[in-house]
Amino acid sequence: MPAQTLSPFVDAALDAAHLDDPRTATGRTLGWGVVSTADVAENVVPDIAALPDARLVAVSSRDQGRAEDFARRHGMLRAYGSTATATGLDRLAADPEVEIVYVATPHGYHHRDVSALLRAGKHVVCEKALAMTAAEVRDLLRLAREHGVFLMEAVWTRMTPGFRTAMRRVRDGRLGRVRSVEASIGMHRPLDPAHRLFRKADGGGVLLDMLVYPLTWTSAVLGAPEGWSARSELGPTDVDLDTALTLDYGHGRAHVSGTLSTTVPHQVTISGTDGWLRVDGRINCPTTLVLQSADGIRRGAAPVVEHVAVAGAGYGFEMREATRCVQQGLLESPVMPWADSLELAELFDRVRQRIGLVYPHDAR
What we know:
364 residues, alpha/beta, Rossmann fold, Dihydrodipicolinate Reductase, domain 2, eight-stranded mixed β-sheet, six-stranded parallel β-sheet, 14 strands
């Protein structure tokens, strides 16, 4: 069977032997800082700590007490809260032992926080979405280039073993020529106007928070769409509670959706001329793949189920990639290049315009 052509970032991920075991050092030890004590930071920081060439130096928060509690529990050397003269972020940015920073604040603060860090000469791994708008993303890329520092959007799925395993099956031609992708993610969440997912200023809603995951799969196997249509429902706080995109690639199609209003299966199905591959459960960090061939369907054979082991919570793979890039003097990762972050932000801008979702940042 002929090999399937995949996006360049997939080839880079599959050729990255250092992603096979994130707990193998790739160079000198880096001093890490963390911005925010949010839940996602609680999950990610232990995977950073597990890297043999990482040293946890400092965490920042608006509240000194929260910063100190986080630092104590995660074995960090220093905790920076806001004072009368400086924010916790500014204090962390001034720490000479902090070389690279993981930013875990809500989307609406990314441009502000990452800008300050880049200007201070820090390398940055920023949670997705990299910024609220394409204009903000362009500005961050400009700053990273001007200051000669590494910047990466933390789309961790691209580096995970489940995603890489799935892409190997596709690249080997197991599905033939890929023709379609169907993907869904989300669950019902009761309305909470104070929660970041429902706050417009924080970049709440489905679009920025969820759709990057199904779109990671479509871009991997189908590339950039030639056209698209969108359907969305805005909620009482004026963020999108449901958004679905239908994407046309000429040679194929995709339908992706995210929701805060309905409990749906988290699932990706990639279908080709010779078979299909399904990811069940965690589409952002897959642990179970189901593969069926056209011949198997004809013979009445059961699909093949493949289980993929993941080290830690699965975030160590993206942190290994960021570490390697900094150690080698790269400004961007070939697995998560700047052009991909900008392309996604531009698509989201166009989708928001189509569905009538306006952020306060749009006026800047």
